[in-house]
Amino acid sequence: MDARKYVILTAGGVGKRMKSSLPKQFLEISGIPILRLTIEAFRKAFIEKKDNNEESGVEIVLVMHPDYIDKWKDYCKKESYFFKHYIVSGGLTRFHSVQNALKFLQQNKVGQDWTNTLIAVHDGVRPFITPAKLKELFSIAEGEEALIPILKIVDSMRKVLPDGNTLPVNRDEYITIQTPQIFRGDVLMESYKLPYLTSYTDDASIVEKAGYKLTYTEGERTNLKITVPEDLISIH
Q1: Residues 6+ apart with CB under 8 A from 4
Q2: Radius of gyration (Cα) for the chain, nearest Å?
Q3: What topology does CATH give the domain 4-148+177-235?
Q4: Mean pLDDT in each 10-residue stretch from start to end of the chain (236 residues)?
Q5: Can you give the residue ranges of every domain in the chain?
Q6: What is the secondary structure of the chain as a DSSP string?
């Protein structure tokens, strides 16, 4: 039996790095909020036909800053953008936001066999992940404890020394990490029982700290994270 699929979309930003009055997930590309574009990638990847209706084969948990939950609800009403999803208040850090989402799932999916689930964690501001890549990632994740999409470095790299000088480094020794990172449900939930550390850089680092195995696979170069104003300029 195929594993039940969940995705936690982290959308708790407040717009500081974008230097915007709006959080970046609400900024628009071709008239559509970034967050909606991200959601649609997952919906398109896993739409299923049931009794002449369309249902998504992945359940979406949207983690948002409490101050912007009503704004999202108002947008959905105004645009008649209705689909099944859950909204959870974000926490002090990304760690605590994902932890809140996991607690929500445990409390609201009582009886779920978490060993037979896949839980993806994806940045709400990575709208360009393709449905084909999502299907591929979830397929590979079956049977793995943790699947992490990566990219090899193509630019030259240098290390900055304390005195301000730099040294060249071998780029073949480094990779960049993307999302969605996909985990067996029980693995992610057990890992998030660890105490918070500032050294955690992503969900993979938490799962690795808990002693689980990370499996790597090729990501997608177009799967960009929109972080600073220049990212939107380059898109347009």
Answers
A1: 59, 112, 116, 117, 118
A2: 18
A3: Spore Coat Polysaccharide Biosynthesis Protein SpsA; Chain A (3.90.550)
A4: 91 65 88 96 84 76 96 97 95 96 96 96 97 97 97 96 96 97 98 97 98 98 84 57
A5: 4-148+177-235
A6: -PPEEEEEEEE---STTTT-SS-GGGSEETTEEHHHHHHHHHHHHHEEEETTEEEESEEEEEEE-GGGHHHHHHHHHHTT----EEEEE--SSHHHHHHHHHHHHHHHSTT--GGGEEEEEEETT-TT--HHHHHHHHHHHTT-SEEEEEEE--S--EEEPTTS-EEE--GGG-EEE-S-EEEEHHHHHHHTTSPP-TT--SHHHHHHHTTPPPEEEE--TT-----SHHHHHHH-
Residue owning tokens 């979830």: 138
* Residue carrying structure tokens 């036909």: 49
d(CA 70, CA 34): 17
Residue in the block written with tokens 């609400």: 26
Tokens of 210: 């808990």
What is the pTM (predicted TM-score) of this model?
Answer: 0.92
